[in-house]
Amino acid sequence: MTVQEKPLQNFNISTFQNDLLDWYYANKRDLPWRNDQDPYKVWVSEIMLQQTKVDTVIPYFNNFIEKFPTVYDLAVADEQAVLKAWEGLGYYSRARNLQTAVREVVENYGGQVPDDPNQLEGLKGIGSYTKGAILSIAFNKPEPAVDGNVMRVFSRVLNIDEDIALPKTKKLFESVTREIISQEDPSSFNQAIMDLGATICTPKSPSCLLCPVQEHCEAFTLGVEEQLPIKSKAKKNKKIPYVVLLLKDKTGKIAIEKRPEDGLLANLWQFPMVPLQEVTIDLLENWFYAQYGLRIRLGQKLGDLKHVFSHLTWNLEIVEAKLFEESSEENCLIFVDKEKELKDYPFPVSHQKMMQYL
Q1: How deeply is 14 buried, as exposed, middle or buried, from its count of CB atoms within 10 A (0-12, 13-18, 19+)?
Q2: What sections of the chain are H helices per DSSP?
Q3: What is the Cα 179 distance to its own chain's centre?
Q4: Which domains does the chain show, CATH number per domain?
């Protein structure tokens, strides 16, 4: 049964709100960004929480706010310092977009995060969910903040069998949430739905017997809670093989390079990566000379790593190498002291893992 066919018919909104909020007030998670309703902190936490679990985010959030306690601090920070503070969280475009948007807040809004929906959504990296989260949590405005958690909860409570991977379904849930949200305490309401989805109405094996809104849940009544939500499968993940070189010069310094300014993992640092779609291992030394102007000698293979992104997988073969002949020509590699300097550069998780082989 879809909401279009049955738009909240026979659904007791006020009782649902009361049951949900009573549970939340008694059981809400102790999270550092809930200590106050500072819109900047709410904003940072919501950007970090995209595609990252709460337990992972907490130490990153505390460290980030310690380094950049206000929009002004983040606006003037060096991008490499921001990426270093983000190192390990992944999806680094989130950090770059956040800093760009914060600079706009300082420049156009006097350092005050706007509470106007249009102004807020006009900032880089802020979509409908983040906009709703900031407006509701920080400014206590009855705006829906619909993510996967919220769609899962309401698909079960209202027995909605629409595909949540489709944009039109998110619009549907935004409309539903707008009708159900508490007008008196929208901040707590949206956070309550988030907590419910994270702790009780989980993707697999939901704890229905502990659920504070069980009596409102159509999926539980029908015994179909584990069949919802409906989500179509994502496109097949593309696999790309690389050889990653842990290349040392004669002094033992290690070669690193900066990734391009655009695209995947932009502006992070990495060990040199050789795409095996372009070159075979026996021609790798020649390929490297053509690419970098440096003569190298390959050593032994040190290990393999697999790193999975949302849309592709890197299959990484880690090989040691030595600089055989230096060049006076400029190239994009720099050689750094592995003990003193390497730690100062922001690396993606996959390359952080390789450091065990140094």
Answers
A1: exposed
A2: 13-27, 39-49, 54-67, 71-76, 79-86, 93-108, 117-121, 128-133, 148-157, 167-180, 186-199, 218-222, 284-292, 349-354
A3: 29
A4: 13-227 (1.10.340.30), 238-357 (3.90.79.10)
Q: How far apart are CA 43 and CA 74, in angstroms?
A: 13
Element housing 323 (H / E): strand 312-325
Of 58, 98, 50, residue with least CA distance to 74: 98
Active site residue 46: yes
pLDDT tens, 65-97?
999 999 999 999 999 999 999 998 888 999 999
Burial of 54 (0-12, 13-18, 19+ CB in 10 A): middle
CA-to-CA distance for 203 and 230, rounded, in angstroms?
Answer: 11
- 3-state class (DSSP) for residue 84: helix
Select which of 5, 46, 285, 330 is catalytic. 46
Q: How far apart are CA 340 and CA 353, in angstroms?
A: 18
Give the three-state DSSP class for 197.
helix
pLDDT tens-digit readout, 227-280? 999 988 877 889 999 999 999 999 999 999 999 888 889 899 999 999 988 878
Instruction: Kindly tell me the sign of the dihedral angle through the C-alpha atoms of 126, 129, 130, 136.
Output: positive
